Amino acid sequence: MPSPQNLFVTCAPGVEPFLDAELESLRISKRERQVGGVSFEGGWRDVWRANLELRTAIRVLSRVGRFQARNADELYRGVMKVDWSRFLGPESTLAVRGQARDSELDHTLFVAQRVKDAVCDQLRERTGLRPSVDKNSPTLRIHAHIFKDRCTLSVDTSGDSLHRRGWREIQGRAPLSESLASALLIASGWDKRQPLLDPFCGSGTFLVEGAWMAMDRAPGLERSFAFEGWPGHDAAAFAKLREELRARVKPLGKRVIWGADSDPEIVEAAQHNLERAGLSDCVRVERADARAFAPRHGWNAQVMTNPPFGERVSEERKLIKVYEGFGEALREHAGGFRVSLLSGNINLARSTGLPNPKEWMDIKNGALDCRLLSWQL
Ligand SMILES: C[S@@+](CC[C@H](N)C(=O)[O-])C[C@H]1O[C@@H](n2cnc3c(N)ncnc32)[C@H](O)[C@@H]1O
Asked: Which residue range(s) make up the domain with 283?
């Protein structure tokens, strides 16, 4: 299988610098930060490592073609030039996502349809097979992006979005994406040795992601990826890499990772998730009201939390009391701690009574505009 050359790793808006730093730590040097991701040049081992090890990424795309596409025929001919038998075998299924901007071809569904037709026609001519379309879980996802009449064609090497690590079975009420939670943990400056405390832990996203970071456990270690089903995939070499990463995992040891939530059902859900993540014997979750947060004095801890915003969980007026009480508990018991709070509502954050934060970062949490606010108490 030829080596992929031009790769683009996607991430949530605002996460690009953290993704870039992660790629740097994988020793990937020819990188370029762009809006919504980072591009780089690399070989198959880089693709594998990016999929297995990046905590803040969403997908790893490999560019397979770039050509002029001012009309449907040019698009069709450009797609036909790619050798699709590299990615599709007899059992394969296919989905195409079209995007178009500032171009003659501006109908994204039409673009997707035309690309799909060209791929299927090529395979039928060469092999007699016609792959079927599966919009939900295809073995190959193709992205066709047309900008100013130039089409960039990419194949998605990841398959399911990389935020799906496999541990989350129960959602909680307003769960954070795993990739975003990891980015926020990195942004908070948590050093992976300090106690990590989440008094509004919900389904346990910060706890699992933090524990896996501290254990050096690759987030994709036990999941599958699209490229594993492609013809010519070197399964033996990939299995060896997985084994190397498994051998790297360290126990959490004495490090403290703790969470609480006031809702007993959510606590049960978090415990279930921790069990699936292999963490039930080293990460503790309990039922507690964040207004009674009273961690041990003198801990140099990191509080990393995402209290309810009022949009999805409950109403703002009721929540003001919760934020006031939580702020009081922090002032009383968390002297010397670092506190990072993901806030989707600045009025609520102010109700903690903490001073205006010196550090903040704007971030998109799905469709919500949020801010990560940090204090050194
Ligand atoms: C936005 S969700 C947290 C989501 C979490 N980060 C996750 O990824 O699943 C807020 C959580 O705060 C909990 N909560 C609400 N009021 C609380 C209180 N007074 N004390 C502790 N937890 C509370 C809710 O039950 C909910 O699970």
From this structure: 178-217+249-376
